[in-house]
Amino acid sequence: MARLAAHAQRLLQFQRLLEAALPEALRPHVRVANFRLGKLFIHAANGAVAAKIRQFGPSLAGDLSNKEAKVTQIEVRVQARNPSPPPQPHQRPALPGPKQKQELTALAARLPGESPLKEALERLLRSVKE
């Protein structure tokens, strides 16, 4: 278990180094997958990101090398992530209660006659049922 924990810790350290070395736009789309015998495996979210990471290859290997492990090669693979869960259905906001309706009516009465805000408030108040 200790060896596995040490390997996981090393991968986390590589992930932090990778995020520091990459432009901000690429950071959420890449993750360190593994490190074995000097070869760092990186998963990219899509082909465009993978191509961009490959362009950074040589300089990235130098940035990712640390005192414990020397990165001699970087392999980038496209690994699509699970899609995010579907968005929640839009919930209509709560309608104003009696006190809020009274305050909105008073506000509408104070506004000038041709005010677009007054018209919008009056439409809102008409749509609110008691």
Question: What does this 3D model show about the protein?
Answer:
The structure is a single chain. By secondary structure, this protein is an alpha+beta fold. 48% of the residues lie in helices and 15% in strands. It contains four helices and three strands, in the order αββαβαα. A three-stranded mixed beta sheet has the order 1-2-3. Strand 2 (39-44), helix 2 (47-64) and strand 3 (73-78) form a beta-alpha-beta unit. The radius of gyration is 28 Å and the shape is elongated. The mean pLDDT is 85.
Average pLDDT over all residues: 85
The helix content, as a percent range, equals 40-55%
Show unreliable segments.
Answer: none
How many domains? Answer: 2
Name the CATH architecture of the largest domain.
Answer: 2-Layer Sandwich
The CATH homologous superfamily of the largest domain corresponds to DnaA, N-terminal domain
Spatially, the strands of the biggest sheet line up as 1-2-3
Q: Element order, helices and strands?
A: HEEHEHH
Total helices: the number is: 4
- Which class do the helix and strand fractions yield? alpha+beta
- The CATH topology of the largest domain is GMP Synthetase, Chain A, domain 3
Report the principal-axis shape: elongated
Q: From the alpha-carbon coordinates, what is the Rg to the nearest angstrom?
A: 28 Å
Number of strands: 3
Biggest sheet features: 3 strands, mixed
Q: For the terminal residues, how far apart are their CA atoms?
A: 65 Å
Proportion of residues in extended strands: 5-15%
CATH class of the largest domain: Alpha Beta
